[in-house]
Amino acid sequence: MLVSGNWAPLLTPGLREIYSMVAGRPDPMRDLLYRVLPSPKSTEEYLGFGGRRLVPPWTGTVPYEDMDAYYRTTMRNILLVDGLQIERSLLEDDQYGQIRQATEEFSENFGVTREHDAVQTFINAFTDTGVNRVGLNIAGADAVGLCSTAHPYSPVAAGTTQSNEGTLALSVANADTTRQNMLNLTDDKGVLMAVNPDMVLVPAELERDARQIFPQTDDVLFEPGSAQFDASLFQSKLGGHKMTVVMWNRLTDANAWFMIDSRLMKQHLIWQDRVLPSFEELPMTNPEIAQWSGRMRYSLGWKHWAWVYGNNPS
Fold first, then answer.
1. Which among 4, 50, 81, 214 could bridge 287 via Cys, Cβ 3.0 to 4.6 Å?
2. What are the DSSP E strand ranges found in the chain?
3. How far is 189 from 199, CA to CA, in rounded Å?
4. What local confidence, expressed as pLDDT, does residue 61 receive?
5. With contact defined as beta carbons under 8 Å apart, do 179 and 260 qualify?
6. What are the tens digits of pLDDT across the range 107-154?
7. Would you say 306 and 264 are in contact if contact means Cβ atoms under 8 Å apart?
8. What's the pLDDT at 10?
9. pTM beyond cutoff 0.85
10. How many CB atoms lie within 10 A of CB 228?
11. Which has the minimum average pLDDT: 180-184, 205-209, 236-240?
């Protein structure tokens, strides 16, 4: 018998199962790009270290070096909560399909939210100030955006800077220039950082051009528009430098594109989960409406910027 106070608990197990199944689905782009870590605390701190000297020749004793501290990255987990309401009349009228659809759409939005927040790192990459949607600072620990023309070498060498930001449109020649710029990045001791770009991230508007410039097969291909049939630099069979093209339709700038070292990205681009999406029944305050809440806590950011080079043509 459906009486006040006992009908909501009848729905909770089924709704929680739907929520767990839908909200717990993988997040394709977040999982591809970020290093996803558990977080047992409200705030996590990541301390980087400066570069090391080259290994010296043996002189009879083991030498030791004091490395300069790099910037301390602090990532504060943010609580996100949303609510679901089901009217008693839907249960009375056996509208289980409508109840299930409402729960699925509610649950799906938790995954959509994570993907939306994940892409903000790249949407805001060329911005140095302000906060993002959830209130986290847009700038990194070195006080500039992810992509900047003025990244300090380190806290003790802040007067010397280098760049991972450009204004080049996507083309074969500009891709080669961007790759060279990444290969030449050095640490605070002036030693090459061994950056090796192997991925290009583009919006939907640039996907066609990107797949022409960066062949995704091992077949012999040539530079687009080349009258001389020049072999493409980014073609693997001829010993080139193959790039994986990743299109993210959530990127909002139709012209901006990013070249990435995926190995370094997985070290330095971090998503931390404090609380995975969870589903809870709330006390009933209205006998005609039952309420549930979904909640999650997370943070995101980066420890170092050298894994990416962004071009933002005007």
1. 4
2. 35-38, 43-49, 69-76, 78-87, 151-152, 161-162, 165-166, 199-202, 244-247, 257-260, 269-281, 289-302, 308-311
3. 27
4. 86
5. no
6. 999 999 999 999 999 999 999 999 999 999 999 999 999 999 999 998
7. yes
8. 83
9. yes
10. 7
11. 236-240
Give dist(CA 137, CA 144) in Å, integer.
10
pLDDT of amino acid 3: 43
CB 34 within 8 Å of CB 260: no
- Token readout for 222 is 């040539």
Q: How far is CA 275 from the centre of its chain?
A: 18
Are 79 and 298 in contact by the 8 Å Cβ rule? The answer is no
Residue 95: pLDDT band with limits 50, 70, 90: confident
Structure tokens at 176: 């080669």
Q: Quote the CA–CA distance of 258 and 243 in Å, as a whole number.
A: 12
Confidence band (pLDDT; 50, 70, 90) for 261? Answer: very high
Rounded distance, CA 286 to CA 103, Å? Answer: 19
Residue 111 dihedral angles phi and psi, to the nearest 5°:
-70, -40
Reported as type and span, the H/E element at residue 103 is helix 96-123
Q: Which residue has the tokens 């589903």?
A: 279
> What confidence category does residue 240 fall into, taking pLDDT thresholds of 50, 70 and 90?
low
* CATH class of the domain whose range is 8-55+72-311: alpha beta
Residue 209 tokens, joined: 């051009």
CA atoms of 82 and 276, how far apart (whole Å):
14
Cα angle 205-208-210, degrees, rounded to a multiple of 5: 95
**Residue 43, token pair as written in the block:** 């705030």
Which tokens in the block code for residue 291? 């309420």
Neighbouring residues of 248: CB distance < 8 A, sequence distance ≥ 6: 29, 119, 122, 201, 202, 203
For residue 59, give Cα distances in angstroms to 62, 79, 167. 8, 55, 48
Q: Are 278 and 294 in contact (CB under 8 A)?
A: yes
Q: Can you give the three-state secondary structure of 154-187, one letter per residue?
A: CHHHCCCEECCEECCCCCHHHHHHHHHHHHCCEC
